[in-house]
Automatic annotation (TrEMBL):
InterPro entries reported in the protein's UniProt record: Gly_transporter
Pfam families assigned to the protein according to its UniProt record, in alphabetical order: Gly_transporter
Subcellular location: Cell membrane
Record protein name field: Uncharacterized protein
Family statement: Belongs to the UPF0126 family.
GO cellular component: plasma membrane
Superkingdom of origin organism: Bacteria
Ranges that cross the membrane: none
């Protein structure tokens, strides 16, 4: 009973932190698109809540996390308005989006893992839920703001970082049996890989078309 309560608390904390940080990136994207305050809140909410919403729908987890606890909406709105009044202070809002996305990976991927594991999902499903939780909101954000989604840009190590974090977290869970250790290992791995990719411009090789071979 105590373990279940601790797991639920862990998920709430991770989801709350991920919503806030992702909502900040939504606000920054809204600032780049020069939207009004309502637009800021809308984009921030979609970004912060999108991944967790899709995760819960796929896992048939009802009610969806922000419907059960509407304060997640308030957190997203606060993040949006915070950015509305401060975005002009940043030297590069795009760079800030990339780094905040990297930080949010460390919260969203383990949140997805924890929810899936708590519902008894096998490890491939758990890792997939971690990736979805960490990526879908950002994809929706970029599409709404008429940007190419970050996860699809020129070999960006984003989904790769989420996958590696999820795999590391599941391995840690198998060894230790501790959801907290799982979350820490997962989040740390995802953030380190994504941060290294940003700092050192690491990218996956891109597909390059070649002329067909003659038979």
């Amino acid at each position: 009973m105590e373990a279940a309560a601790a797991g639920a608390t862990l998920v709430q904390v991770l989801d709350l932190a991920a919503v806030f940080v992702f909502a900040l990136t939504g606000g920054l994207s809204a600032s780049r698109a020069q939207l009004d305050p309502v637009g800021f809140i809308f984009v921030a909410a979609v970004t912060g809540l999108g991944g967790g919403t899709l995760r819960d729908l796929i896992l048939d987890r009802t009610p969806v996390f922000w419907v059960a606890n509407p304060y997640y909406l308030l957190v997203a709105a606060i993040a949006a308005l915070l950015v509305f009044f401060t975005a002009h202070l940043l030297m590069s809002r795009l760079r800030a989006i990339y780094w905040l996305d990297a930080l949010a990976l460390g919260m969203a991927v383990p949140a997805g893992l924890a929810v899936a594991v708590g519902l008894g999902a096998d490890w491939p499903i758990a890792i997939t839920m971690g990736i979805i939780t960490a990526s879908f909101g950002g994809i929706a954000r970029d599409v709404i703001c008429n940007e190419v989604p970050v996860v699809l840009q020129e070999g960006e190590l984003y989904i790769t970082a989420a996958f590696a974090g999820g795999a590391a977290g599941m391995a840690a869970l198998a060894v230790t049996g501790s959801p907290v250790t799982m979350a820490l290992v997962c989040g740390f791995t995802a953030v380190i890989i994504r941060a290294a990719a940003l700092a050192f411009n690491l990218r996956l090789p891109r597909y390059k078309p070649r002329p067909p071979r003659e038979r």
